[in-house]
Amino acid sequence: EVQLVESGGSLIQPGGSLRLSCAASKFIFSSYSMNWVRQAPGKGLEWVSYVSTSGGLVYYADSVKGRFTISRDNAKDSLYLQMNSLRDEDTAVYYCGRSAGGAYKDGPSDWGQGTLVTVSS
Amino acid sequence: DVVMTQSPLSLPVTLGQPASISCRSSQSLVHSDGNTYLTWFQQRPGQSPRRLIYRVSNRDSGVPDRFSGSGSDTDFALKISRVEAEDVGVYYCMQGTHWPPYAFGQGTKLEIQ
């Protein structure tokens, strides 16, 4: 069974930085594009970022563009999200999700359990 | 960007009865490749989202056949033929046609009455 395990979430002050990780296992990580999707407390789902199978193509939601950086290490079966200049409104559970390489328009088919980021002074 | 609008936002249903959720997009979701990238997700209480249906009507592996998706262009629906207790949760539609970004609906909370 596919496994996606997020880590790195914590309480951080506004303006701070944090790096999230997503460890993938039980599938060929390099064959799947990856996403980060977040969910603020009691709210709905918001797509954050996408990275292609090779890492050469990345996209971001307008709300995080210029502050967040997505990356992946296919040798380590890992996905990352570097989050800088954090704001209160970035407080959310962050999920990583995988999409079959050519079927990314169908959205993530599998999701991790999420990691909580709390931005507060 | 495309806006996805779901209704109702709250859906009380009696066990064994059918349920239907509507999802409307602000633009046609028919892609130039001929596909319509409309996806439904289920999020049970305290759990991660789970994809149920993609491209309007294709069920993911393991999804019970009491779940069905339909619609076209800008108007879509998720139907549950007979609601079971395990169906409680929030349901989201999402478009991928005009990606990026993916756009999610606000979510519909299904509860047992």
Structure commentary:
The complex is a heterodimer of chains A (121) and B (113). Chain A has 121 residues and is mainly β. Chain A is 0% helix and 50% strand. In chain A, strands 2, 4, 5, 6, 9, 10 and 11 form a seven-stranded mixed sheet that branches. A four-stranded antiparallel sheet of chain A has the order 1-3-8-7, with no helix packed on it. In chain A, a hairpin with a 4-residue loop joins strand 7 (68-73) and strand 8 (78-83). The mean pLDDT of chain A is 97. Chain B has 113 residues and is mostly beta strands. Chain B contains no helices and eleven strands. Chain B has strands spanning 4-7, 10-13, 19-25, 38-43, 50-54, 58-59, 67-72, 75-80, 89-95, 103-104, 108-112. In chain B, strands 2, 4, 5, 6, 9, 10 and 11 form a seven-stranded mixed sheet that branches. A four-stranded antiparallel sheet of chain B has the order 1-3-8-7, with no helix packed on it. In chain B, strand 4 (38-43) and strand 5 form a beta hairpin. Chain B is globular, with a radius of gyration of 13 Å. The mean pLDDT of chain B is 97. At the A-B interface, strand 5 and strand 10 of A face strand 4, strand 5, strand 9 and strand 10 of B.
Question: How do the strands and helices of this protein lay out in sequence?
Answer:
The complex is a heterodimer of chains A (121) and B (113).
Chain A: E1 3-7, E2 11-12, E3 18-25, E4 32-39, E5 45-51, E6 58-60, E7 68-73, E8 78-83, E9 92-100, E10 110-111, E11 115-119
Parallel strand pairs in A: 2-11
Antiparallel strand pairs in A: 1-3, 3-8, 4-5, 4-9, 5-6, 7-8, 9-10, 9-11
Chain B: E1 4-7, E2 10-13, E3 19-25, E4 38-43, E5 50-54, E6 58-59, E7 67-72, E8 75-80, E9 89-95, E10 103-104, E11 108-112
Parallel strand pairs in B: 2-11
Antiparallel strand pairs in B: 1-3, 3-8, 4-5, 4-9, 5-6, 7-8, 9-10, 9-11
